[in-house]
Design goal:
By secondary structure, this protein is mostly helical. The protein has 16 helices and eight strands. Helix content is 47%, strand content 10%. The chain has a three-stranded antiparallel sheet with strand order 1-2-3, covered by helices on one side. Strands 4-5-8 form a three-stranded antiparallel sheet. The radius of gyration is 29 Å and the shape is elongated. It holds the Pfam family Phage_integrase. This is Integrase. It comes from Muricomes intestini.
Length: 428
């Protein structure tokens, strides 16, 4: 008989969840003829005989089709943990950006495997996933974080289905409803940015805020900006590399940087921002002298923004500390990356230079052209136009930087409450 009963000590219910009670399950075994000879199809552990009988009928029809490829039973028996860890390495490295790849690995490790990692791959059900999502919500995770976990599972399980490791994709049949994404924070207006600048001038946040909020650099571009890519005589700097997305804690030296999306991004240093660059260069030399004088080791990574010993900052730590800074200064809530949006919005509103603003932000020429609805054959811009483009960037940046008119903070009016840290003491 193709269906057989079997006693188990821990039976699953109709949703595939372990009950902790003994009971009877039903296994399906079907012998069929394949092009390479006789084979046996097996699927075990049905909660009821009715389910097993229904599956038997479905599979007999499919196996009678010569083009049908049966499930690879051995692969389906691996755990979700085993499958996802192998899948994310093989799929992620080949198809995802480094930042997305790191995000996938982090979500799998922290938000998926603790809940369903032990489950056998071919035993994973939509009910298990719905239960997992509910636990994540109860844990206090945001809608976007839980939705991201669902997206990872949907993609990975669909690949497992296409590999014939499982019959169906359980992530496609969940009943969890994800609400609409929350409204992202509004970028700072020019007056708000002016106030924010006045609060961070003279602190270690000064140059990171200048690069993000006045130039629109990304976090990794900022912490990866090297002094040898800054030319104070020509009043310009090149954003030609960035810090690798995830560096291990305790890293002291960076042997290789990651490339940027646009490797020919040259930005002018305006008269308004030159003092910040000069002060940062002076700070680097002072920190280096203090470390060496104290008998310590200075790690000369040539980073414009680094720890006192020259070692690199990690983006996750810097992002978290920025959140503390915003709360401490009682400014409207934004993320560090929103400073980039602030720069983009304010430059565009002040100048209308959509194309030039896109170049300042490091958008590709092709991408800018597509946004403008014009020819996408823009990568062939010849060298004779480089100076013209640089001059346009300077005009846009000067207009924005002059509008900010950063000033020193008014201590009496701007000083935060006495029981809080001074802004100069807020760590990067």
């Amino acid at each position: 008989m193709a269906i057989s009963a079997r006693k188990v000590q821990n039976k699953r219910d109709g949703n595939g969840v372990l009950t902790g009670k003994p009971g009877t399950v039903y296994d399906v075994n079907i012998k069929y003829n394949a092009p390479e000879g006789k084979k046996t199809y097996s699927k075990k552990g049905f909660a009821t005989k009715k389910e097993a009988t229904q599956h038997e009928a479905e599979m007999k029809t499919k196996l009678a089709n010569p083009v049908y490829t049966p499930i690879v039973a051995s692969q389906g028996k691996q755990t979700v943990k085993e499958y996802l860890e192998e899948w994310v390495e093989n799929h992620g490295k080949a198809n995802l950006r480094s930042s997305t790849f790191a995000g996938y690995k982090s979500h799998i490790k922290n938000h998926i495997l603790p809940y369903i990692g032990h489950v056998q791959l071919n035993q994973l059900t939509p009910a298990m996933l719905d239960n997992m999502f509910q636990q994540l919500f109860e844990k206090g995770l945001s809608n976007s974080t839980v939705r991201y976990a669902q997206r990872i599972l949907s993609v990975s399980m669909e690949h497992a289905r296409k590999y014939h490791y499982i019959e169906n994709n359980p992530a496609r049949d969940i009943i969890t409803k994800f609400g609409k994404q929350g409204k992202p924070p509004d970028p700072y207006t020019t007056p708000q940015m002016q106030k924010f600048m006045s609060r961070v001038i003279g602190t270690e946040w000064e140059i990171p805020v200048v690069l993000a909020g006045l130039y629109g650099l990304r976090m990794n571009e900022i912490i990866g900006l090297r002094t040898n890519n800054i030319n104070l005589e020509k009043m310009q700097f090149g954003v030609v590399e960035q810090m690798p997305f995830k560096i291990p804690p305790g890293t002291k030296t960076i042997t290789e940087m990651a490339p940027t999306k646009s490797n020919d991004r040259i930005l002018p240093i305006t008269e308004e921002t030159l003092p910040y660059f000069l002060r940062q260069f002076e700070l680097i030399e002072k920190q280096k002298d203090l470390i060496v004088a104290g008998g310590g080791e200075y790690y000369d990574n040539k980073l414009l923004i680094a720890k006192p010993d020259g070692s690199p900052y990690r983006r996750d730590r810097m992002s978290a500390n920025f959140g503390q800074l915003i709360r401490h200064l009682e400014m409207p809530h934004i993320l560090f990356h929103d400073l980039r949006h602030t720069a983009a919005t304010n430059m565009h509103q002040l100048t209308g230079g959509f194309y030039t603003v896109g170049e300042i932000l490091g958008h590709t020429l092709k991408g800018i052209g597509m946004s403008l609805g014009i020819s996408t054959n823009l990568e062939a811009v010849t060298a004779q136009y480089v100076d013209v483009r640089l001059e346009r960037k300077k005009t846009v940046l000067e207009t924005y930087h002059k509008a900010l008119e950063p000033r020193k903070p008014d201590i009496e009016k701007e000083a935060p409450k006495q029981d809080k840290k001074k802004s100069s003491e807020m760590e990067l």
